[in-house]
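Quarterly update, task 2.4: 4'-deoxy-4'-aminopyridoxal-5'-phosphate-bound model.
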Amino acid sequence: MRFDHQAALRPALRGLPGYEPIEPPELIAARYGVAPERIVKLDGNENPYGPSPRALVALAAPYAAHRYPDPDQRRLRDALAARHDVPPACIVAGAGSDELIDLLFRTYVQPGDRVVIASPTFGMYAFDAELHGAQVVDVPLREDWTPDGDALVAAAASARAVFIPSPNNPTGGTLPPGLAERLIDSGALLVVDEAYIEFAHAPSLVERAAAGDPLVVLRTFSKWGGLAGLRIGYGVMPAPVARVLMHVKQPYGVSVAAEVASLASLEDCALLDERACALTGERDRLAAALAALGWLYPAPSEANFLLVRMDRGDALSAREALRRHGVFVRTFNHPRLRRHVRISVGMRADSERLLEALAAIAGELDAEGEVHA
Ligand code: PMP
C-alpha cells in the first residue's frame, strides 16, 4: 500500500483554519491597478523608517554568510543582556518572536492542554495552539477592549499557558497594573508579548521574567528595530526555561544576516528610540485627524497602529475602497471587528495620503452602515 497523506495527517491538522498573513504589497497593487510607487503600506505594523543606519551599513559590509550562525547565540544574547540588564542565560533568540511562540508550544503544550487568550488578539497564539492540538480558552476583552482580569485569572487556573500581548494587537492597550502579578501566581505559564512595548508608556516585564517567575516576555526587532524582513525576535525568561528552549530550538534559526543587523541595531538604540517616539507622536496626530472626520473612532493606542471603528460601511468594503487608492490597511475575520480596520502608523506623508483617500471614499461607503456578511 502506498502512503496515504490524508490518513497520515495528524488529527490536530485536519481542518486547521490557518493563520491569515498579510499579502505582498506588489500583489495587492497589481490586483487593484495601483502603481508600485503609489503604495502606502499600513497593514503590517512595520517600521516606515526601515532599519537603523548602522544596521544598513553592517548588512552592506562583508559578513560570514557562508558560515552557520552560532547555535548558542553568544554575541546576541550578551548584547541583549546588556540592553536589558539581565543575565544572557535568561535570553533565547529566534527567527522572529513567532519562532519563540512556536518554541514555547513545542516545549510545554501537549494535545488537550488549555491555552488562554483574550480576543481579539494576535492570531499566532490560536494558530499554534490548534497546530499542537491544544484547546484555546478565549476570555474576550471587555467592551472597551480592556482585559477581564478576574475571568483571565480564573481561566488561567486550569490552563497550561496564557498568551497576552502588551500592547495588544490589534486593540493597542497595555496590561493593567497588577494583572501580570495575578496571572504569574495562577499556575499557568504567563507569556507577555511585548512586540510593541517601545511605543508604550508601560514598563517592560523583562526583569521580572529574568528574576525567575513563571513568565516569558517576548520582544522583537520587527517593529522598533525595523527588521521585520530579517526575522529576529527573542524572549526573556527564567534561566531554566531558557536552557530548555535552547535545547529544543532549531540550532540555526537566527540567520547570520539577522544577527549582524540586530547587533548593529543595538548600537543604534538612541536613534531607534527617537524614531519610535516620532511614530507615537504621529500616531496621536493621526488619531485626532481620524476622529475629526466624524465617522471614524480610533481606540486609544500605545502601539504603532490604531484600531479604528467606522460607522459607515464595513471593514471589507473600506479596505477594498482604500486599496483602489493605493492605501493598504488590515481587516480581521473576527465577529467584533466587522466595522474595524487596523491602520499602522507611517510617516506624516502616509497619514496625509490615508486621510485624502478616506475623504474620497467616505461617500462610496454605505451611509446606512449595513455590515456585509
Ligand atoms: N507578537 C505580536 C503581538 C505581533 O503583532 C507580531 C507581529 N505582527 C508578532 C508577535 C510577530 O513578530 P515577529 O516579526 O517578531 O515574528
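Highlight for this quarter: The chain has two domains: 11-49+270-364, 53-268.
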